[in-house]
Amino acid sequence: MIEPPVGSKLHARLALVAAALLWSLSSFFTRLFLTPTWIGVHEPEVSPLALAFWRVLFAGLFFCLIVPRKAMKFSPLMFLMVVIFAAMNGLYISAQMIGTAANAVFLQYTAPLWMVLMTVFLLKEPIEPRGGWVVGVGTLGVTVIIAGNWLTGPVDQGAAIAMALGSGVAYAAILVCLRQLRGFDSGWLTMVNHLGAAVCLSPILGFVPLPTAPQFICLAVFGVIQMAIPYWLMARSLRLISTEEAGAITLLEPMLNPLWAYLMRPEQETPTISTAIGGVLILGALAWRYLPRKIKPAEVVHST
């Protein structure tokens, strides 16, 4: 794949906005497989892990067509990244289909909280004061969501919440891995993640039927539009901006994701009060963390 110039930081930020918009469609696509529509892809039932498999497979195949052989370079870190990526997808899709979209996306977007802790304990980087506040307030938001939803709704709501939290931790680890591998081709990294995840999830095929023709088409669109292209945009943008800023910009996704689910199934996808409060705490903490700060005179002198 011959990539166009990366461009300015403004272009990178706009690319991340587009990625967030496309990522937010995950709740729309998962609800297509749960809700009777004129497309009719809700029958026969597609299990969450099977849905995760086909999504990453079609996304990976898309990149097989455009990634040049010269970009195919390996690093031992890629093997760990692939396993984590597979776990993240399986957990997130399962949380989306078993529980509510709002709980799933808000808890997955605790990733920047976990990333703060990872950079401190794994990369040995100092924690900024704002980072500490984000962890504290974000943890409070997670607690509110869990306390208000664990024993309400479906009997497996607790499992869905645990899966969503796990996907958030895995997402943070992926961001850290991409940061460490930023010297590699962005399309190649995305291809490795998706095809590697498909291999990890492929054992599910021994237990479920193959999708119908309409389901195959929908799964292909799901994988390419909602999965492959956004991750490619993210990987490219990380060349110019930090993972912290990228995490902040993509907060647009958790604000839109529950909306698509609500429009599909309003009677089942209306967020609870605790979800709304917890979501505001999580997103508010992250937004405050990345608000522009005035540079103190002493900082200007030091930087020069």
Describe what you observe in this structure:
This protein is mainly alpha-helical and 304 residues long. The protein has helices at residues 9-23, 26-32, 48-64, 76-98, 101-108, 111-121, 129-149, 157-180, 186-201, 213-237, 243-249, 252-264, 266-269, 273-289, 297-303. Helix 1 (9-23) packs parallel to helix 12 and helix 3 (48-64) packs across helix 4 (76-98). The protein is globular and about 50 Å long. Residues 1-6 and 295-304 have low confidence and may be disordered.
Which descriptor suits the 3D outline?
globular
Mean pLDDT over all positions: 82
Contiguous runs where pLDDT drops below 50 for at least 5 residues = 1-6, 295-304
Beta content comes to under 5%
Q: Order of SSEs, N→C? A: HHHHHHHHHHHHHHH
Number of helices: 15
The helix content is over 70%
Say how many strands there are.
0
| End-to-end separation | 40 Å
What summary fits the major beta sheet? none
Helices and strands: which structural class?
mainly alpha
Please supply descriptive tags for the structure shown above:
about 300 residues, mainly alpha, 15 helices, about 70% helix, disordered N terminus, disordered C terminus, transmembrane helix, EmrE-like, EamA domain-containing protein, transmembrane
